[in-house]
Amino acid sequence: MDKEKELEMILDLVASKKYVELKEILKDMNEVDLADILNEIEAQTAVLLFRMLPKGLAVDVFAHLTIERQKEIINVITDKELKYIVEELYFDDMIDLLEEMPANVVNKILLQSNKDERDLINQFLKYPEDSAGSIMTIEYVDLKKKMTVKEALQHIKETGLTKETVYTCYVTDENRKLEGIISLRKLVTSDLDQIIEDIMERDVIYVNTHDDQETVANIFRKYGFLALPVVDNENRLTGIITVDDIMDVMEQEATEDFQKMAAMAPSDEAYLESSVFELARHRIFWLLILMVSATISGSIISGAEEVLTAMIVLNSFIPMLMDTAGNSGSQSSTLVIRGLATGEIEMGDFLKVLWKEFRISIVVGIVLAFVNFLRLYYLVKIDFNIALLVSLTLIVTIVISKLLGGTLPLVAKKFKIDPAIMAGPLITTIADATSLTIYFYFAKLILHI
Amino acid sequence: MDKEKELEMILDLVASKKYVELKEILKDMNEVDLADILNEIEAQTAVLLFRMLPKGLAVDVFAHLTIERQKEIINVITDKELKYIVEELYFDDMIDLLEEMPANVVNKILLQSNKDERDLINQFLKYPEDSAGSIMTIEYVDLKKKMTVKEALQHIKETGLTKETVYTCYVTDENRKLEGIISLRKLVTSDLDQIIEDIMERDVIYVNTHDDQETVANIFRKYGFLALPVVDNENRLTGIITVDDIMDVMEQEATEDFQKMAAMAPSDEAYLESSVFELARHRIFWLLILMVSATISGSIISGAEEVLTAMIVLNSFIPMLMDTAGNSGSQSSTLVIRGLATGEIEMGDFLKVLWKEFRISIVVGIVLAFVNFLRLYYLVKIDFNIALLVSLTLIVTIVISKLLGGTLPLVAKKFKIDPAIMAGPLITTIADATSLTIYFYFAKLILHI
């Protein structure tokens, strides 16, 4: 791949100390690719290369480095260099940085900022994790409604390079209340003497600092926005969220749901970068809970000892019944949990989901029971009554598992428990126990044990 | 909520035939909100409202309607109205439309386009599903390198409103080869007499028409792009993909992985809008496969009949062992499948994953076995040998399940099978069978049955 060649070439130039040539190459590179390289190579070379970057690029690269590397760089650069980074870093990246750094580094950073900045930083650090406030930034283009298009464009020309985005501009009054928005597309396609007020959009969609980032992501996706304004409880514009940060949120939220549904504590650290103990710790809690709760199924089996000793063959259908119950249930819970996450399914859809899952489970149950009966009776040539027992159990089990799987996430949400945590790992255990209870109940009934 | 009030108000105005007032309200509304309303109300009113919209807005709203509603509208509007929609719709929306409509509607639409357009449409319809080509659009801003900033801005002013985005502009030569890109931010912050060539970015990241949309999404996320150029095999610029479409792709790809890992055929239709039979059909196939493959576990149990009759208590640990095995395995497979999807884990990481999962599984296995032993021996007061047997089985089972779970997705990918399909549903079944085999083997060894 070109990237490996590029890295090799850079390391060669470092080794032969061709710094002029090196500088020339580095300055035209993409900041994300550069950060990838600096993250990969050894610390000393990384710092060396970092200091060769033009100032502006250095800040962009810095924002993409791993926490470890950022720490190392902060520890060796001069106060002047650090001050530049602190000043130029976008506010959301700065907050991310401060949240991750150890106290001594945080102090070093805060020393480079003035009192107003420190107050603002403290305010931002207080927003709840995963709230709109915690991911917004303050570098937006602020216009006034009496400006002409020409004045607005001039304002953007002067300040645009320091803004996180210039593509959506925000029109505020003297109290920072949001009066409208206008896109740069609208500005560059309008006549220069038009007044902002006359061409801005007034029907602005915005979020509150305390709204959940998942809600924010769903708004972005629904409307296809590039940026979204964030207001405080007094409806004053306090920041904006841009689409590039939202893509990270979408990925992170989906990954966390995957983890929760596979019975793990959610983590936003990358797999390959997490330590073994960290990963083990995230997995043990739920495995323990599920291990202990699986003993319920165990005691249902113990309780049916007489049935099983009377007819030991019944034992061999247990895995199939338990697996099918668990799979049926998690099919339903997965769709509903995902629907809740993307905003497609809402609390009000409880009865709709229940009725839908009921009908689906009847269809699925009958098909599976039918196939199972044919297989057992004609292929395996098992006793008719036993084939009937297993098939009937299948239908009832599938119906109950699917109803539980479909509704449990909604019940969890109702009680403000995370649907993915509640319904993901637990549905299998619940479905297992249910299937066994039904099985042994039917066994006594049909086989007269 | 305001939205319900808004809908009520609109329906009131329709009922009282206050069309002038209605038009005034509709024209300032957001296209996505309008489409939501038109999708919800009855067809006749929807068509009535649709025809009241200003032409430009009508096209934007049309792109967000459900397929059903689009069909109904196409069937009643005049050829002239349809022609306008066909001309103004972004090319990617047009392709989506044609892919979903029945043949007679497709013909009606194609009648409104000229031969060149039809050729282009046919070319686009041929791109593989989920490829970059299938989601790109052709409405981009095309600049030449000799233009000045002033000329470029004038060009954008004249053509910008018909482009999907104006925020990234593409510089091509006479053979449509991509020479560079320049952002509108750069243009509006540069002096008017600068030459594009001197300020454009030459290190352009692009994708090929046949690249997978998941790869495209990962590039967007990694670099935080707003748009990405798509080139053909001759490196000619054939289209662009914008970030709003990529957010849909990200959501769709994650949803599909959720579905596959919960043993369902993937579907990009919304849950509440899919029919019962459609949903049932997507679930039955994998349930059947897994039901039949679970009989392997069943026959392992049957094969251990002598062990189980000799010591019926062993039966009651089966659910716990099977569940823990399944859960351990799917924890690992989930993380690896997700890592593969987001591009964090690659094929080359096989040994890293194996080694990591081995160490994690040792930690997890020992903790679980220890807790389990204490519980069985001291709390349940079970025979020492049996407590030992169950705990040893746990450790070995967890190690094997995690190694399988971690590596199976990579093996699947190696053989070009979808990791989520291969490893998601199957890991539980495989882990089940493994755990039972180990259990009975150890039982014979330790209990001398």
UniProtKB/TrEMBL annotation, chains A, B:
It comes from the Bacteria. It holds the Pfam family MgtE. The keyword Iron-sulfur does not apply. Keywords: CBS domain, Cell membrane, Magnesium, Membrane, Metal-binding, Transmembrane, Transmembrane helix, Transport. It is found in: Cell membrane; Membrane. Its main location: membrane. Residues 136-199, 200-256 form the CBS domain. Signal peptide: none annotated. The chain crosses the membrane at residues 284-301, 360-380, 386-408, 420-442. CDD domains: CBS_pair_Mg_transporter. SMART domains: CBS, MgtE_N. InterPro entries: CBS_dom, CBS_dom_sf, Mg_transptr_MgtE_intracell_dom, MgtE_N_sf, MgtE_transporter, SLC41_membr_dom, SLC41_membr_dom_sf. The keyword Transmembrane helix applies. One of its GO terms (cellular component) is plasma membrane. It is a multi-pass membrane protein. One of its GO terms (molecular function) is metal ion binding. Acts as a magnesium transporter. NCBIfam families: mgtE. Belongs to the SLC41A transporter family. Homodimer. This is Magnesium transporter MgtE. It comes from Soehngenia longivitae.
